[in-house]
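Title: Comparing notes on inverse folding

I've been comparing how different people in this forum approach sequence design from structure. To keep things fair, I'm posting one structure and asking everyone to reply with a full sequence. Here's the target:
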């Protein structure tokens, strides 16, 4: 069991390094004599951390309900302050809703070709004081990042469309999506199959690391 775990870890490291370098490796490739590892449903975690990009052009192909549930489950398994899980998600597929959004924000025109849009909402009703309230957007951001990685792992693409801190957007989307009092919208994540994949790049910057002191 230990050997299998080590093989998974080393393989993920290899995939992550290859992804950062823009090299695609077949997951099934095994070192000679290494124990067999079943292929995962998507990419390994370390790989998607390096290959994740922001996509604003989709080819119109659908995101299956099963894949969407997998993506949302990843978001709901994210860490949150005091385990409050202060998130709610509004799922939009209807063309009429997309059209209303584009009419209000023409720059969001590309969402028309996305299969689905996930709106991440922040539950402020669970906060007992101002300190807890400030942590709500941080927790929901963790959920969005987990979903983003799941999107990449399943072969889709997405991006972050800010709603907070823009008052005009907040009021528009609250009315459009019937979001109740006590909840704010953090962002929208349009999800679809990218028209073309963006090549990964290394963003590691050693000068940003500070040992013990700045």
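Reply #1:
Here's my take.
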């Amino acid at each position: 069991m230990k050997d299998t775990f080590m093989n998974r870890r080393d393989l993920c490291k290899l995939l992550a390094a290859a992804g950062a370098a823009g090299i695609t490796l077949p997951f099934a490739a095994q070192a000679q004599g290494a124990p067999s590892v079943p292929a995962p449903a998507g990419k390994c975690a370390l790989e998607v951390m390096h290959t994740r990009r922001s996509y604003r052009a989709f080819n119109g192909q659908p995101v299956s309900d099963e894949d969407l549930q997998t993506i949302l489950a990843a978001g709901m398994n994210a860490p949150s302050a005091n385990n409050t899980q202060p998130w709610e998600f509004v799922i939009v597929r209807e063309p009429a809703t997309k059209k209303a959004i584009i009419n209000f924000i023409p720059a969001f025109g590309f969402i028309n070709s996305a299969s689905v849009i996930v709106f991440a909402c922040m539950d402020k009703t669970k906060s007992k004081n101002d300190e807890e309230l400030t942590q709500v957007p941080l927790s929901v951001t963790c959920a969005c990042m987990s979903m983003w990685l799941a999107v990449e792992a399943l072969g889709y693409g997405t991006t972050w469309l800010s709603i907070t801190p823009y008052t005009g957007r907040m009021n528009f989307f609250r009315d459009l999506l019937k979001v109740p009092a006590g909840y704010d919208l953090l962002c929208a994540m349009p999800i679809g199959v990218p028209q073309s994949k963006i090549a990964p790049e290394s963003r590691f910057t050693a000068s940003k690391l500070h040992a013990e002191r700045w």
